[in-house]
Design goal:
The protein is an alpha+beta fold. The protein is built from four helices and eight strands; from the N terminus they run ββααββββββαα. A five-stranded antiparallel beta sheet has the order 1-2-3-4-5, covered by helices on one side. Helix 1 packs antiparallel against helix 2. The longest helix is centred in the middle third of the chain and has 23 residues. The radius of gyration is 18 Å and the shape is elongated. The two termini are 18 Å apart. The N terminus is likely disordered.
Length: 150
Amino acid sequence: MRQADDAGGAEPGGSLRWSTSPALIGIGWVLACALGLSLLLTETAVDTAFVALGALLLATASGCLSYLRPRLRADSAEITVRTLGGAHSWPWERVSVRISRSRRLGRETPVLELDVPESDVLGGLLVLGRFDLGTEPTEVAEQLERLRRQ
């Protein structure tokens, strides 16, 4: 398990959390700043527009990923998922956890699926992959099942 300041790990009080790698988010912020500074070097309006759009997109993506940290948090009492609409928490009795596998680009990719009440999240299904969790979804599912049994 990773330390609390990494992509996933334990927090004080016995809860576990997972989120996108901080290094990846940091790279996004650095690239957004670099593109912002490179605006000073552009000469034509088209160059300025494309570089500004790239900087804006990277800054928006990095900002969203920063806001979503931690993406998933769980303890023996409940599970919490952070979305752009805010944090949503459910007791273990209302959540179903499973791993789903699909083939993408010639590879089998596991994802963590959380079935939650439809009244809380549109569709009632949250799908989290390796990018969202910062670690393999199968490892997260195993840790969640251990927490659920406590």
